[in-house]
Each structure stands twice: as structure tokens, then as C-alpha cells.
Cobalt transporter
Amino acid sequence: MTLFRRLFVAALVAGVLSGTAASVVQRVTTVPLILEAERYEVVTTSPPVAPTQLTPAAPAHAGHDGAGHAAHPAPVRELGEAVPETAEEAFQRLWLTVATNLLVGIGYALLVAGAMLLVRAPVDARRGLVWGLGGFIAFALAPATGLPPELPGMGGAELEARQIWWLAAAFCATAGLFAVAFARNRLVVAAGVVVAALPHLVGAPHPESAAGAVPPEMAARFAVLSLGTAALFWALLGSACGAMMQRVLGRPDEEA
């Protein structure tokens, strides 16, 4: 019971530290881009033109152009409803973002600390950084190669299909990294590499044509900043987990 309590405390400290750091970095990097992109998220259409409002010259084209505009009015971009307009709304979004990052950090820290406990390999802050690198590859970089981080207002395939593919990419990458890192049999290592590559060979779900209104340069900048923030998050999480789990599992030099 003491072991599990220490494990939870280690994950709690690592999760709070990494989640807080990620929240601060997101506030000055990705959040402004998200707010800007939400201006492209809500697209309304202008009201159809009634036949009685057509000009006298229009009837000659009413059967073609005039009726066409009425049935398919040009889209008009409007400010997204999710954009905070008051300080209270902005504060609510801020603390929800921080709370989400803390919960995600604690959850991932529990996974990493549990894996460290099961493997029973020596750990410290430096070795924890390597674990963090593995977490970044498995849960951020590998899925992002098929489905890059997306801004509001960007077109995409069905949400359920993207979620399933993301989970498959993360799970297969994790299995492949464990095989490469800990397997002693070459066949197992080769099988792990194949499993890690399988979701990418199948291909991530994408729409037939891009339908988003977000400028491409904004989307590219968001993807880069999101991956950079994820790298910082996982580096802190892994190092903190390693330092805390060193107390739980014992010092490396003591086990050597």
C-alpha cells in the first residue's frame, strides 16, 4: 500500500509540474492562434434574395444566375461564438485549460510511473528524460505525422475516425518503442517496428478535399508550436517522474 501511495505522489508531482508549465507556454503560443482561428469557425450564409427584390434587368437572367444566387448565397464569415467577449469568459476558458492540462499531466504521469515500476529498470531524472522522449514520440509525434494538430475552423474527416486512428497510432507506437527498448529477441524488435508503422501504412483519415477556412500558414504555425509545447511537457514529465520514482525504486547506483 505504501508503494502505491508513493507511486501516486510521484505521478501527482510530475503531472502538476508538467501541466502547469504547458499551460503557461500555451497561453503565449497556441492560445492566441486558437482565438484567432475561431473567427473562421462559424460561417453563416447571407439570406437568399427574394425574386421580388430582383432588379428590372435581372429577369433576363433570373432563370439562371438570379435563381442560382438565391439558392446558393455566398458564404459570409462571422465572429465565432466561442471567442470570449468578456473578462469572465476569458478567465473561465483559462482555468478550464489549466485544469485539463493538470488532469492530462497526472494521467500520463501515472502511466509513465506505472511503466517504470513494472520494468524495474534504474531511473533518475536523466533516465526519466529518456522516458519522456519516448512519451513524446508515442503520444505526440507519431500521431501528428498522420493527423497534425488542428485549429478550430479547419476541415477534417469524421471525428470518430480520427480519434480511432489517433489511439491506434499512439498504442502501436508505444508497443514498438517498448519492443525496441526492452526486447532481447530480434524478431520481437522487428515485429515492434512493423506494429508501430502499421497505422501509418493504413493511412490516417482525411477529407477528400480541404474545406477549412483557416489560412495554411496559421495552421502550420499552430502545428509546430503544439509539438514544441508537447516536447516541453513530456521532457518535464519524464524528468520529474524519474526523479520522484528514484525514491520509490531506489537509487541506480544502489541497485548496480
Summary: The chain has a mean pLDDT of 82. The beta strands are 43-45, 75-77.
